[in-house]
Amino acid sequence: MGTCARSRRRIGRRTIGMSMTTAVILLGLLAGLLLGGCEAPAAIADETTATAPRPQFEITTSDAFDPATLAAYDGDHTEIYELIDRRQGEHLENLQRWLRQPSISAQDVGIDDMAELVRSDLEAIGFSETQIVPTSGHPGVFGHYDAGAEKTLLVYMMYDVQPVNPEDWASPPFEARLIERPLLGKVLMARGATNQKGPQRALLNAVAAVIDATGTLPINLMVLAEGEEELGSPNYPELVDHFEERLASADGAFFPFNSQSPSGRIQMNLGVKGIVYFEMEARGGDWGGPKMAEIHGSYKSLVDSPTLRLVQAIASMTSPDGNTILIDGYYDDIRPPTEEEMRLINGVAQNYDGAAIRRLLRVERFVDGLEGTDAIMRHLYDVTLNVDGIWSGYTGEGVKTILPHLATAKVDSRLPPGIDPDEALARVRSHLDEHGFEDVVLRKLSGYPAAQSSVESPLVQAAIRVFNKWGKVEEVWPRLAGSAPFYQFTERLNLPLVFNGLGHGSGAHAPNEYMLIEPERGSGAAGLAEIEKSYVDLLYALAE
Amino acid sequence: MGTCARSRRRIGRRTIGMSMTTAVILLGLLAGLLLGGCEAPAAIADETTATAPRPQFEITTSDAFDPATLAAYDGDHTEIYELIDRRQGEHLENLQRWLRQPSISAQDVGIDDMAELVRSDLEAIGFSETQIVPTSGHPGVFGHYDAGAEKTLLVYMMYDVQPVNPEDWASPPFEARLIERPLLGKVLMARGATNQKGPQRALLNAVAAVIDATGTLPINLMVLAEGEEELGSPNYPELVDHFEERLASADGAFFPFNSQSPSGRIQMNLGVKGIVYFEMEARGGDWGGPKMAEIHGSYKSLVDSPTLRLVQAIASMTSPDGNTILIDGYYDDIRPPTEEEMRLINGVAQNYDGAAIRRLLRVERFVDGLEGTDAIMRHLYDVTLNVDGIWSGYTGEGVKTILPHLATAKVDSRLPPGIDPDEALARVRSHLDEHGFEDVVLRKLSGYPAAQSSVESPLVQAAIRVFNKWGKVEEVWPRLAGSAPFYQFTERLNLPLVFNGLGHGSGAHAPNEYMLIEPERGSGAAGLAEIEKSYVDLLYALAE
Fold this sequence. Notes:
By secondary structure, chain A is of the alpha+beta class. Chain A has helices at 20-32, 78-86, 88-100, 111-125, 197-214, 236-248, 306-316, 339-349, 354-361, 372-381, 421-434, 458-470, 487-492, 528-543; strands at residues 10-11, 14-15, 129-133, 140-145, 152-158, 177-181, 185-189, 220-226, 252-254, 265-269, 271-283, 295-296, 386-393, 402-403, 406-415, 441-448, 451-452, 472-477, 480-483, 497-498, 505-506, 514-519. A 6-stranded mixed beta sheet of chain A has the order 3-4-8-5-9-20, sandwiched between helices. In chain A, strands 11, 13, 15, 16, 17 and 19 form a 6-stranded mixed beta sheet that branches. Chain A is globular and about 85 Å long. Strand 13 (386-393) of chain A pairs antiparallel with strand 13 (386-393) of chain B.
């Protein structure tokens, strides 16, 4: 099936929203394909939108950001690196301890034990303040290591994992065995290995090594972990509530993430789009149509069709090609590209290969024949309206002649910076009302704004320099077109967020999830020791 | 559930089409509700269609057809009636013999045995020519009784029945027990009791009684029975092929039907609408969109949506209210009401109760606020476009963000006389092509034109007179708005068709199907003996 299969899950009475890591991992994989052939940006005439209200942003600079111009981090922490090398056996066991503790949020399996494992590990490492933080759902974990330093880093963690079908796994998902993978090396195979316990515990290994080697940390650390990421982080805002002022005093937020390709490439993404996800429903009522149940189809002559009503309501929102939104003001609030973002786009446009992306997606052409910079701009700055699903009436084989009483669609709208999810939904509501679809119900299922960090922020600069030391940052994108609720960090706490890092893993939300621990000779991706050393460097680079 | 639940079934490689009796039975039940309060036809302004191409037919006569003006049939066949009365035990056993032989076409249960039972019964009664007629599906049965008479009646029969869930039945569905029903009388409960073995075998009882009492029949009889009615009669045209010239020489066609309400009312319908039923499908292809599988929803910015394409294609075919078809020429070929039909409509309009129909359908208002004659005219002469079902993408609970590669809808169009199903579908195709939806696939699942008999035809006149003798024909409608492939008789063979009759039954396609055999004192519907006597009268009335 598709690249984005997501199963529905519930916790308590909440319907799940988005999962941060899903979007990031899957879109990261796709984005990796962006590197490839070189195609000159073409000036394609945008016929279908000539009279449309979609803004046409211009790139007004020829400057291009090149991450290679940021010198590799050159701090020397040999003593700590050597401690990390000596402790590799213990460090691997730490990962295995976390991975052997199931913590399936959707099924409430092992959640409390895992939360306590996180808390007690923080305490053992030397965090002076640790606590389990109750929420409306699964508890969070807070930890504070006050080094009396000038700078503070907020570490976002998730301690929950996806469910498993053990029979699909080559190695039992909660045994965390070390397995040889041809062409890659030794990998740790377990649910949560890469999403997200592996890199998170690796960071704590690094932190412990710094403390043990030097007696303290070069920066202060705050950890705020949740146990509901795989449920769409419904209560993370609540966790932030508890510590908002302290969290906002940090200098940046970091989400430990294995984002190297097997060959070692790192593509950085400095933001995500927001989203508003809603259901539209038409049902017979006072306006007409069958109110209680389907009726015989021959009555269409006298009875309105809720299905056609939904179809017309949806159709009224877009141009006939489905690609331009006709809702009044829907494009108005898009924040234009900043000069910084233009430079980033000029940078990535040099290697942009639309044909490679289309091959991966199995798509023959992009809308309006977009290529090159035009495609990048549309992808990053367009607000979209997409029907994720629609259903009504008889959907089996053959003939059944009914006039259904109910029709429903799932719709998502991806929101570039500047567009608020509730305002977007209000515009949809107004549009429907103004077009005579007052009775079409909207049900919001999820919504949050975009998140954006600046490449100029000290944390991002430090990250690029560190990544350039251990690997090579090939591209820095202003954002992913996918969505994750990172606005909690970037917009609410006003912190730059880095959610890329050394390390390679795969199989998130799938069988045989793994994290690379010991790469084969010649493999470009970092192993556990190198990852941990890069984390050490990141702490010091941020401290500078 | 709705009033028109139909399950999908296949036979051989054919997908099923429509079932004659389903439409007739269910719509007959609804139509029965038309009798009730008296409401003056209102001249409602038809705002939404003011500029639409829908023709506005005028009733240009004030004459109203009143079936009561046709004198009850007064032929006296006492000798035959008495034979029928004496033979009631044997006649009931004949019905039971047929009902105890399962003949479930969808499951190929008992089909060949039932076909032979029909054939051998015809032979035993005295039909000189009887044969099992192979088809591409289940066999047909042909029988000819040549009385050397001037007139010939073609009897349409179906010997197959719907499947059963025995656990849902108060009495085993193939035991055909006689059961006492409060307020009604003794009923025969079995699958097929009323749909359609009961009335059909009752007709043969009557025929046998006439032959035994008089040595012959007053008219010639041809029987052409099929075993696939519940599959949509896919091979009935093939059966007609075999005997077309002989069948066309008949003076009318008769479908034995229990169409009395429990109180004894008979509403006659002289025709049905045709139908074309098709699927519309949009799928990613050379035009754009994902070709092979769903992709991540964030790619809507660059990738066309087949789902929106289908929605836009459907929306382009109707006015925003979904009630006027915008396909070029789609209304052009509707045959205007004949003067005869106007008189019939004037007749039924006097008792038309739109509010009662709306209560039954659970509908608050009819389209355009139609009432009275306007509603009747729209119902009988409108060509409709109705979405029976639509589906695409994720239809489960909660959030899943995908851009689906495939979207499908089931659409039916009810066709008043004058509109050919294939021409209608060709207009849909042209419309889609002209509006840029060349890639939207149309798959025809079923299609046939309307059927219409004249109230002036000798067979219909004879039927009304006979029904007026044994009961009372309250209303004669030009047609049902539902569909059945009766065009085989009316249009292809050019025969008037009567598909109403004395007798009451219920539960077609449902558990506890029954036919009333011995009404309680005071019950208005006919019992088996009266039904058989009315059939005797019909043969003689047609002979006159």
